[in-house]
Amino acid sequence: MSWVLQHADFFNNRSMEWNSTYMVWKKFFADEGFTETELESATVAVFRRSKVPVFGAEHLNALKEELREIRRKAREAALKELQRRPPCPVCSNGGTVRVPNRSLIDAAGNWDDAKSQSLDWAVCDRCDSAKILGCGGLSLTDYESRVPNWRSLLARQDEIDKKTDSMPSSQVEREYEAIKARLRSVFLELQNNQLNPS
Q1: What sign results for the dihedral spanned by CA atoms 104, 110, 112, 117?
Q2: Structural domain of residue 172, as residue ranges?
Q3: For a Cys-Cys bond, which of 13, 44, 77, 157 suits 114, CB 3.0-4.6 Å?
Q4: Angle CA(129)–CA(131)–CA(134) in degrees, nearest 5?
Q5: What pTM does this model have?
């Protein structure tokens, strides 16, 4: 209730109608995640404007503008602070961590389709970078409870990728042609089975 009284005092709007309006606004802003302190700061900023709002819609819009500005400045300060910190050993202050896609990990803990397209992201909960950056989703702790060996899966895939990258192009081409030939024979066999069912 204190912000309602503060706002009413600042703008000399103490009628029951204004009081009811401010209560609705306070609930609206609380539902949007704004704190009482942010509301109080926004009221002071609106009061200091060269053109003070007169009507309800003007007040509401001015408050929204000031709250956005307060959040922008807070985020900017948090990002600067994040850049000054030593990097998080898990996410390097990026807020998210590259992990294997859970849907492609079988019951035995094997990664069925270890390709870059099968990667996912988990939100780092070892530092506050994710909160500062506004990252959302599955936390790394929750992910690890389901896939405890994710680091070894990624390390194994990184090794495979390095070997593939360092293969001579002729070897890669031979393997590619062999895969194409296998696929062609499987396709022909399937086609033959459809034409000549047993």
Answers
A1: positive
A2: 168-198
A3: 157
A4: 105
A5: 0.56
